[in-house]
Design brief:
570 residues, alpha/beta, seven-stranded mixed beta sheet, five-stranded parallel beta sheet, 13 helices, 28% helix, globular
């Protein structure tokens, strides 16, 4: 197969090519580059699409394509072409069976032939859902237990919370089918290397279950909360069709172990007070980063865990048109998506400050899951049509900041910040203009180029949120050192994006759920280092940082489990 990189088209900023027009144009350019007739190209697949705005406002759409030839030699064609952007590649196709076969290191054997001892997957977020999907597809009939409700019931509960402030601590933005990512921007890009093809396979699974095909090649794919809800429901239905089972409102509250410290059962509590014991030889621990009560249960069950660094901060909102102008050189391009950005710097104190979960055309949402505590997140719909851009701007913290020696001191650190956020906003999302925040925190010498603002963009600018908000002293939430780091970061970012540190930018908080505060330790077989048959997985366990990396880790753990099973793959 021949791969061609760097096929460029000038974007006219007004209209986009249709899918058919694009494929014809790519085929035409590929044939010209290879010095062959278009009819000799039997197949063309877009592998990657990105936007090159380095010479803005002249914008380029850049494509990488794989092509197959008919009736001519790839080697001779490549030799004749002599272009550094053209190469012959071996196609990498993910194979679950091959990955299982390749695993030489195996853990304790798993018996799944007994109908009363099924593989249990705890959590129906991306990690648990993809783990269960792969197991079900290959005949292992997993049982997925989700503490929250199905996605339709969950959506109703979340909308009710945003309208009334009445929180359902079982089903909310954090808990329920699809996990925390269901009410997010739905980003599907990841920094995880994909030498085995899991990432490409995960994207294909998204497409098979209702996502648009362009996620297979967009450099920064996303599907939005509206499409993600459909996808997770379709995935669940396929799991059921393949013989798996999914139970909602089924919270795991304990485990049973044998004398060799192997898991033999999980204890489940539903909406009633009665507990149920489910026998198993293997349990996948695909809990989310907000399953704090489960973390405490694991600690009390002596499951090996360790503290880990994460980051905390605030959501920052700007007019999307201002971000478009910075990134594209034009405020309202018709043929380009709302512009994203990625910012990172290091403060005088040596802490990292960076943007996280940036949502073009998105909303800040109340993402709380515990009474008396408030956390925010970013969310967008598939069209990203909101007027504001928002991103978390977060500061790195590590165990020395947590204020305790317990393995779960990071959880308590998060809780203290969320209690302050709840208090300053009186239960509503607290919001403060950045200029007011900065005046309370930073000395004059911290301010950077105060006149370098596009103030017209902020005429009539207001927060764009899901859930009630109130203007309040957001600067009282974080410790003083972290506040100063946040301001230093904002001022440096103002030199990167004109107007980023404008006084009327909106700051809301607290962004405390960026990643898990613990890592549940596992070995190279995917098992807990001290509990046989327990497989920590995904973001809550400390092995992922987003929808895609969690999905890929779920697939990996499914492979680990299959490698230990007695029954044959189907």
């Amino acid at each position: 197969m021949i791969r061609i990189n760097q096929i460029k088209f000038v974007n006219n900023l007004e209209t986009s090519m249709t899918s058919d027009e694009l494929y014809r144009a790519l085929k035409r350019k590929s044939a010209k580059l290879l010095h062959i007739d278009e009819k000799q190209i039997s197949d063309l697949e877009i592998i990657r699409h990105s936007i090159d705005a380095r010479k803005k406002p002249e914008i380029y759409d850049v494509y990488m394509v794989d092509i197959k030839l008919s009736g001519i030699s790839e080697e001779k064609t490549l030799k004749k072409c002599r272009d550094k952007n053209v190469s012959i590649i071996d196609e990498v196709k993910y194979s679950f069976i091959q990955q299982v076969t390749n695993r030489s290191l195996r853990g304790a054997p798993i018996k799944v032939t007994d109908d009363n001892k099924r593989i249990v997957v705890i959590g129906a977020g991306p990690a648990g859902l993809f783990c269960g999907y792969m197991l079900a597809k290959h005949g292992y009939r997993p049982l997925i237990l989700e503490r929250g409700a199905d996605v339709d019931t969950r959506t109703e509960a979340v909308e009710h919370f945003w309208k009334t402030g009445e929180l359902n601590t079982t089903t909310n933005v954090q808990f329920g089918e699809g996990g925390a990512g269901t009410f997010s921007d739905g980003k599907l890009n990841t920094m995880v290397k994909d030498k085995d093809g899991r990432g490409r396979e995960a994207l294909s699974i998204f497409v098979e279950n209702g996502a648009p095909e362009n996620i297979l090649f967009d450099a920064k794919p996303h599907i939005g909360t509206d499409i993600l809800r459909l996808v997770v429901k379709n995935m669940r239905n396929r799991i059921l069709k393949w013989g798996g089972d999914v139970r909602f409102n089924a919270k795991v509250t304990g485990f049973e172990f044998d004398e060799e410290n192997r898991i033999t059962a999980v204890i489940v509590s539903g909406n009633s007070e009665a507990e149920e014991k489910l026998k198993c030889d293997a349990a996948v621990l695909a809990i989310g980063h907000s399953a704090r009560d489960t973390f405490y249960m694991l600690r009390d069950s002596n499951v090996s865990m360790e503290k880990k660094p994460f980051a905390v901060g605030f959501r920052v909102e700007h007019p999307q048109s201002l971000i478009n102008l910075s990134q594209y050189g034009i405020a309202d391009p018709k043929s380009l998506p709302p512009a994203p950005y990625k910012l990172t710097t290091t403060t005088d104190a040596g802490r990292g400050v960076y943007s996280f979960c940036m949502c073009p055309g998105g909303y800040v949402v109340n993402a709380s899951s515990e009474e008396g505590r408030l956390a925010v997140n970013g969310m967008s719909y598939s069209d990203r049509s909101g007027e504001n851009a928002n991103s978390a701007i977060i500061v790195t913290v590590d165990p020395k900041d947590f204020g305790g020696e317990d393995v779960l001191s990071g959880v308590e650190f998060q809780r203290r910040l969320e209690e302050k956020a709840y208090a300053v906003g009186n239960g509503k999302i607290p919001v403060e203009r950045y200029g007011d925040f900065r005046e309370k925190i930073a000395a004059t010498e911290e301010k950077n180029d105060r006149e370098n603002y596009d103030t017209d963009f902020f005429d009539g600018f207001k927060p764009q949120m899901r859930g009630d908000y109130v203007f309040a002293p957001v600067h009282e939430i974080l410790p003083a050192e972290l506040n100063m780091c946040f301001v230093q970061g904002m001022e440096k970012f103002g030199a990167m994006i004109k107007g980023y540190n404008a006084p009327n930018a909106m700051v809301s908080g607290v962004e405390s759920r960026t990643s898990s505060p613990v890592r549940i330790q596992r070995n190279e077989n995917g098992e807990s280092v001290n509990v046989k048959g327990l497989y920590p997985c995904g973001e809550g366990a400390g092995y992922a940082g987003g929808i895609m990396s969690a999905a890929m880790d779920g697939m990996k753990i499914a492979e680990c489990i299959a490698a230990n099973c007695y029954n044959e793959l189907s």
